[in-house]
Task: inverse folding
């Protein structure tokens, strides 16, 4: 999905930008006024990529930690590796399980979105703008619709204008 988002410093200019999109014939389902008293980012389909990655990592940890523990425990039972001399065989099996759980936690962070937190965010974060009292006017749809909305919003003189494309997982 393609998006264009204009950032306005006050509600009046944001409403003017939204009205300009509406009078140009863009469907109401494709445009939104986002800010206090209006839609939220989540309602429009724009989520904070950092929060989304953290939620994915937590969801994967729910499964990977127990399975990692079971796999580590089973591996230690099968191989009979002595990790610590004085804890006996059951202690070593439990330590193997703990190491497996740690591996599961690492997997949930790396594969669940933790890498996305530091490397590649494909959507800009707008939470700071909203927390700063600013308003967003957003449009989503085909590249031609987004280009039309971008042209209209540029005429409204926003503080910032960002266009981007998000791919769904």
Result:
């Amino acid at each position: 999905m393609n998006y264009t988002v204009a950032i306005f410093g006050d509600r009046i200019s944001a409403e003017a930008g939204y009205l300009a999109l509406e009078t140009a014939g863009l469907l109401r389902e494709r445009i939104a006024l986002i800010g206090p008293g209006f839609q939220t980012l989540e309602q429009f389909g724009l989520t904070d990529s950092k929060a989304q990655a953290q939620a994915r990592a937590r969801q994967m940890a729910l499964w990977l930690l127990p399975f990692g523990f079971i796999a580590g425990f089973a591996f230690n039972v099968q191989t009979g590796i002595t990790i610590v001399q004085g804890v006996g065989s059951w202690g070593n099996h439990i330590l193997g399980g703990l190491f497996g759980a740690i591996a599961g936690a690492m997997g949930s962070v790396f594969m669940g979105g933790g890498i996305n937190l530091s490397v590649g965010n494909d959507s800009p974060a707008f939470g700071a703008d909203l927390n700063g009292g600013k308003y967003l006017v957003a449009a989503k749809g085909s590249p031609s619709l987004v280009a039309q909305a971008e042209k209209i919003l540029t005429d409204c003189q926003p503080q910032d204008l960002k266009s981007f494309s998000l791919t769904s997982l």
